[in-house]
Amino acid sequence: MTISPVLQYVVVVIMIIFIAQSIIGNLMVILALTLCPSLRKRENAPLASLSVSDILFTALHPPMWVNVLLNPEFRLPWGLCVLQSYTAPVLWGVSLCHMGCIAVYRYFRVIHFHRFPAMTSTKAVCAEVALAWLVPVLAFIAPHVHPVDNVSYSQKLKRCAAVRMINTQVKTTLAVGFDL
Question: According to its record, how does it sit in the membrane (predicted)?
Fold first, then answer.
């Protein structure tokens, strides 16, 4: 199935607009959290960290997708291939962990408000943000210990992925960010 060139360029323009809006919007969130005294609170640290992870994802991955749409025969160099296959699921995981932390924070603030002060201590917020980054980073590092064995370019997906050979079947484990 081929896509018409007009539709392809419309998708590219939409993706470029998405990239610009995402980076600018997340930078504005970080700027607002740092410059506005009423927002400069410990409990907003996960929101700032979420914005950082979103900026990293948007800066690293959608530009590669645009490049693949414009140049279908282009393949990433090996180093970028390994970087992309590792950072895609890690940054998705970091974003999901941050959203979970924010949801738990809201839950305790509304339902268990008597326990709420303990959750907003500096130690608790630092641990929350550190775990939101460390859990995905460590969870997806195993296939990248020996990237020569595990990372390859998926012709079907047109991007790099970490794969695992099991009983002559190839399972794409990190192409989407989940272990199948």
Answer: Multi-pass membrane protein
